[in-house]
Amino acid sequence: MGVILLTGSTGQVGRELLRMLAPLGEVVAPTRSEMDLSDSESVRKQIRVARPRWIVNPAAYTAVDKAESEPELAYAINAEAVRAIGEEARRIGAAVIHFSTDYVFRGTGDTPYVETDVAEPASVYGASKLAGEKSLAGTGSAHCIFRTSWVYGGHGKNFLLTILKAARERERLPVVADQHGAPTWSRDLARMTARAIERMEAWANGRELQETQSEWSGVYHAAGAGETTWYGFATEAIRLERERKPGVKLAEVDAITTAEYPTPAKRPANSRLNCGKLEARFGLRMMDWRESLGEVMHEL
What we know:
Layout: E1 3-6, H1 12-21, E2 26-28, H2 40-50, E3 54-57, H3 71-92, E4 95-101, H4 124-138, E5 142-148, E6 151-152, H5 159-169, E7 172-176, E8 180-181, E9 184-185, H6 186-204, H7 209-212, E10 218-221, E11 228-229, H8 230-244, E12 252-256, H9 276-282, H10 289-299
Parallel strand pairs: 1-2, 1-3, 3-4, 4-5, 5-10, 6-9, 7-12
Antiparallel strand pairs: 8-11
């Protein structure tokens, strides 16, 4: 298959991708100092050295609240670097896998968003990610953009690990109960990505990926199946932790509203994503969030 250039290999999704992509080809995973996503020239240099067939980009500026006061850095990483990746990929005939977010939507209504719904970000983070999507598409490179939501896993900084730690330290935990979406296991997302690449390579059948991109290039929603709230997610996680460690005292969870937990950046009330296009095109489905949560808890 050739070289796969992977960004952000120490992040939640990146570390899972490092393992899932290994059987597919030679994975080159530059460090932050080797490929600084806040510096587009650094990005271009690394791609020109590696000359990959695939560029997989899970790295991003993800500090949602901090982005409100650091818009230049958020845009540099989430948009300008993505444009550089797309332009270099087009130049050498590589294909790009890029990850985006439910935050590109306003977050209103109560039905799952489809890929063609109007994107109207309510935060700097969401706007920077949408700018990255548009920048990549505008380069004309062969690409897949996977929009996901509520990513978590057994490693890194995420809601699950934060809640479990807080539950051991406090008696009561207030958790927002009016934001709806689906938790997505980082490993499931990485596994899906590897399988999608395998399918695209099969369709290419030795041809340049640029030649076959009309069959698969575009935006796909890729989030855990089912739906819940942050409160529902926390409640289920603590229930499973009680089963796992019956002797450990854990906090009770209290449902609160978004208004009772103000943040610098506005969160979508509706983060539901319809993943039907992913299944129709690639024959792939993400795990139900309860099933994936059970697997993650078993590994902790």
